[in-house]
Amino acid sequence: MAFVNEYITPEDREKYDLDALDKIYQRMFLPMSKSDCITIDRERNSYLRLVKLGRECEDEGNIWYFSFYINNDTYTFKFHIEEAGNLRTHASRKYKILKIFPDKTGDISHLYPILKEALIEYKVLGKLSKCTSFEANFDF
To answer: Is the pTM for the entire model greater than 0.90?
Structure first.
């Protein structure tokens, strides 16, 4: 199985304790970007979820934060994102990692190929994506 974009089910919310994570993210990122969508690979027990869109007033206009769960660990990635194209036809994104939380993660570069798979499937807005074609580039 591969990553797919879905709405969060009650079972996923419970399994991954998303309500508890949302409380943490609400404290970290006041305000949090609450999303009902998830990009999930059930076979690998892994998911990607948008947790905050940066805001211009915070000097984070092109900054997006994602929660990435894999191997029973949750990481939060802070990305700088450059976008191009049209959200309804062809869109593209370039991702650059600015920070990974928690800071004490050590070298997790072996997880990057799976993270890239999830970001490619996420496209522009996960389940809400409307583009007919998508291209992702990575600076990591």
So the answer is: yes
pLDDT(7) > 90 = yes
Residue 116 has pLDDT above 80, yes or no: yes
**The pLDDT value given to residue 5:** 97
Q: How far is CA 93 from CA 28, 65, 126, in A?
A: 25, 14, 13
Cβ-Cβ contacts under 8 Å for 103 (sequence gap 6 or more): none
Q: Which two tokens stand for residue 85?
A: 């194209």
Pairing mode, if any, of strands 4-7 and 63-70? unpaired
DSSP 8-class letter at 104: G
Which pair of tokens denotes residue 34?
């609450």
Radius of gyration from C-alpha coordinates of the chain: 14
Q: Are 76 and 51 in contact (CB under 8 A)?
A: yes
Rounded to whole angstroms, how far apart are CA atoms 112 and 56? Answer: 28
